[in-house]
Amino acid sequence: MKDSRNTKNIFIIITNRCNLRCVYCYERGKNTASADEVTMQNVLEREMKDTAFDSFDIIFHGGEPFMEWSLMRRLSEWLWENYSHRHLRLMATTNGTMLNDEMKQWLSYNRDRFALILSLDGGRDTHNKNRCDSFDCIDFDFFLKNWPLQRVKMTVNPDGLSHMFDDIMAIRDMGFRVNPSLAMEVDWDMKVAAPLFASQLKLLIDYYLAHPDIDPCALIDLSPALLAHPGSIPKNKACGAGTNISTYDMKGHPYPCHSFVNDFSIPYNKEEIDRLFDDLRNKNGLELSPKCTGCFIYPYCEPCYGMNYSHRGDMGLFDPSLCVFNKIRVKAAAAMYAQMILSDKEYSLIKGLSHQQLNDIIIGIENIQVKL
User: Fold this and answer.
1) Is residue 358, in this structure, part of any structural domain at all?
2) pLDDT for 300
3) Is residue 134 situated within a structural domain?
């Protein structure tokens, strides 16, 4: 059941240090600093006074958060002790290589209120190539036992695109759910990557068509119903950066989200960051990304305002390769939905939809076929 609470996501960058050097990492100026406990307590204390939200997701971020395990533990226990009256969910994304017995014992005991999200890029060969031969350093059973429904974070970079499907299946075969995404702000050769991505999505679609009880991953699950009425493109923002998402660096400086913090060597510019907050709070999606006005697939787009700003100086200026990838995803999703609707199999993805919902999907598919 979907949580109906009004939730704020608070990212706490407790360190920019990391024990790995992933090939697609977008962070620069790392391995220089960690957070101060009192500073982070002051930040969290201010956030807990925000009565506009019913609950808070506190995400410990890095670098690798377990480089500052003791600090993360102390802050977690301080939050539970002092703010038990607020609905809190604590979590961290980790490469999984640093967990020792003490950490595992604490995490297992607190697994219902502290979740770990594992970064895993596929089978052994792919993961090791991306992540410094770290595959065999991860206790996969520990993650499966404690958070069996948590999706692992899989990043696909240019070298891994040709076997994306196999890597997704490798993760599924290990017992995990998977949330694959394409690496951002890397050098994509789109003449090669575009057709290759389409062919990998076709393999993924064929798998889901053959397994009606399995819900497709987010990479391909884009309902065509969003494009049933293309004349009324929504102007909503792609995410809650600056509103229901906030981030604090190691010195307690606020940012709209963690994607705005990718070069730790750049001094904090309060005036500029305040301007970004103001724009994110007062402008809708198309005002932030005016070049997207009239784009047929805009309802599907997930522009990363932080990445856009930190790499191109403009929150609305997309990496053009992502636009191409998104169009490929939309066309592939339309083909998948069409085959599911025409099939006599009962697919979990469309099971229970009303006649109107199915009709909107069909209209959306028709629009996609005409416009893309």
Assistant:
1) yes
2) 83
3) no
pTM, whole model, 2 decimals?
0.92
Per the structure, the complete domain to which residue 226 belongs is given by 188-237+285-372
pLDDT at position 313 is 92
Q: Give Cβ neighbours of residue 118 (< 8 Å, ≥ 6 apart).
A: 93, 94, 95, 96, 138, 143, 150, 152, 153, 176
Q: What is the 3-state secondary structure (H, E, C) of the chain?
A: CCCCCCEEEEEEECECCCCCCCCCCCCECCCCCECCHHHHHHHHHHHHCCCCCCEEEEEEECCCHHHHHHHHHHHHHHHHHHCCCCEEEEEEEECCCCCCHHHHHHHHHCCCCEEEEEECCCCHHHHHHHCCCCHHHCCHHHHHHHCCCCEEEEEECHHHHHHHHHHHHHHHHCCCEEEEEECCCCCCCHHHHHHHHHHHHHHHHHHHHHCCCCCCCCCCCCCHHHHCCCCCCCCCCCCCECCCEEEECCCCCEECCHHHCCECCCCCCHHHHHHHHHHHHHCCHHHHCHHHCCCCCHHHCCCCHHHHHHHHCCCCCCCHHHHHHHHHHHHHHHHHHHHHHHCCCCCCCCCCCCHHHHHHHHHHHHHHHHHC
Segments in the chain below pLDDT 70: 1-5, 25-32, 230-234
- For 248-282, the pLDDT digits (tens) are 999 999 999 999 987 777 889 999 999 999 999 99
Dist. CA 337–CA 51, nearest whole Å = 41
143 vs 140: CA distance, rounded Å: 5
Domain count, the chain: 1
pLDDT of residue 29: 53
pLDDT at 260: 93
Residue 356 domain-assigned (yes or no): yes
What local confidence, expressed as pLDDT, does residue 31 receive? 58
Domain contains 345: yes
User: How many Å apart are CA 246 and CA 256, to the nearest integer?
Assistant: 5
User: 298: closest CA among 345, 267, 330?
Assistant: 330
Single out the residue of 119, 5, 121, 146 nearest to residue 62, CA to CA: 119
| Phi, psi dihedral angles at 275 (to 5 degrees) | -65, -40
